[in-house]
Amino acid sequence: MAAKTRKGYLSLFPAHWEVYRMDEILDRLKNNVVVKKEESYKQIGIRSHGKGIFYKEEVRGEELGNKSVFWIEPDCFIVNIVFAWEMAVAKTTSADVGLIASHRFPMYKPKSDLLDLDFLLYFFKMPLGKYLLGLASPGGAGRNKTLGQKEFAELEICIPPVNEQKEIVSILSTWDKAISLKEQLIEEKELQKKGLCKLLLFGKKRLNGFAEEWSNVRIKKLLSYQQPTAFITNDINSDNVKDIPVLTANKAFIKGYTKDTEGIYSDTPVVIFDDFTTSCRYVDFDFKIKSSAIKILKAKNGHNLKFLYERLKLVNIVNSDHKRRWISEFEPLKISIPSIKEQVAISEVLSVADNEITLLENELKKLVEQRRGLMQNLFSGKIDIKNTIKEV
Questions:
Q1: Dist. CA 268–CA 285, nearest whole Å
Q2: Which of 91, 352, 381, 389 could anchor a disulfide with 14, C-beta 3.0 to 4.6 Å?
């Protein structure tokens, strides 16, 4: 095939990689389903950010009506045209055979002599791949930004020979496995901590040296709270900045920026309570706040804040008339607590579990960052796979 002229983003790829249109390396598949009203069908969906296929509830054929659907085939590239711009792409497998998809999920078979399917998936999970999917999705934001079949077919990408593609996939897959194992380990540690909380925070398991009975005390007598209007700030984006975490309603801490120390809360540790989500978080570092829906909680009378934080997370309010719950609804409730000395001992045990999880999360973050850099280097040719293969 005659070499195509490199232009724009295509010039970023290694010189020996070939330029192809998508319709030159993918064949559209559409094995239409003859829907029978009395039979049941299960449809697929595709998660955004490259998180794969999920299955919807079964529906009767009569519920599909005149909807055009087709059978899923294995080892195909499939995309959700409504959220393609958000990397809603996936690979079908043999496990998906027998399922159906609508016209919103076009499916393509890669030409095996030109394209490795996993290579293409990795490409579309990169910033450049996301950009191209957005480029082929004309329209406004959200659901109005739909992938155009013609625009997608005409997209041009650069790819190396198949053997190099497979080598790149093999390298990245090794990192993916390491990341997955780390995620599983974190999940296991979190489950272990939850089990420990249920035992220690309700007195079902006592630590050595403690046998006194626990007391039932209203939360209002254990915690005080502050409405942090004095700490609200909108100044989180500026030049010549100092790095300070910022907390907003409905979200965890985000990376915020401020020119000076005005409005920074530093009397930590505290518990942050969010009215909107009824969630709380233990905070032992300086921060800024950008929401009046957030309360700052402190322990009263020498009680251990860490213990109370872990216990507060397990408090539920029943028969609430609204989704947003205020801390005042928790105040009258009673919880059973041990002596302050035992509170401290329990909090220390739970802190050890937290530290183990934090260590693993930091290791995971490092792995993800390294993999991101590796992927960038592999797709830009900074790591010469061609010569590596020859040496092997």
A1: 6
A2: 381
DSSP 276-341: TTTEEEEE-S-BEE--TTEEEEEE-TT--HHHHHHHHTT----S-SSSS--GGGTTT-EEEE--HH
50 three-state secondary structure: coil
Q: How far is CA 92 from the centre of its chain?
A: 21
Cα 26 versus chain centre, distance: 29
Provide the pairing of β-strand 288-289 with 242-247. parallel
Polymer length in residues for the chain: 392
Q: What is the DSSP string of 77-98?
A: EEE-TTSGGGT-EEE--GGGTT
Which neighbouring-strand residues pair with 77? 91, 108
Spatial contact of 142 and 337, defined as CB atoms under 8 Å apart: no
Calpha distance 193→199 (Å, rounded): 10
**In this structure, what token pair is assigned to residue 154?**
């005409």
What dihedral do alpha carbons 184, 375, 119, 108 form, nearest 10°?
80
- pTM, two decimals, is 0.80
> Does the pLDDT at position 235 exceed 70?
no
**β-strand partners of 337:** 215
> How far apart, in whole angstroms, are the C-alpha atoms of residue 245 and residue 209?
40
Residues 271 and 280: beta-carbon distance below 8 Å: yes
Query: What is the distance between the alpha carbons of residues 287 and 184, in angstroms, rounded to a whole number?
Result: 30
* CA–CA gap between residue 230 and residue 242 (Å, rounded): 20
The predicted-structure confidence for 80-119, as pLDDT tens digits, reads as follows 999 999 999 999 999 999 999 999 999 999 998 999 999 9
Is residue 154 within 8 Å of 23, Cβ to Cβ? Answer: yes
Which run of H or of E encompasses 336?
strand 334-337
Q: For residue 78, which of 57, 65, 63, 97 has the smallest C-alpha distance?
A: 97
Neighbours of 355 (CB within 10 A): 10
The tokens describing 247, both together, are 């907390």
Dist CA 174 CA 299 (whole Å): 47
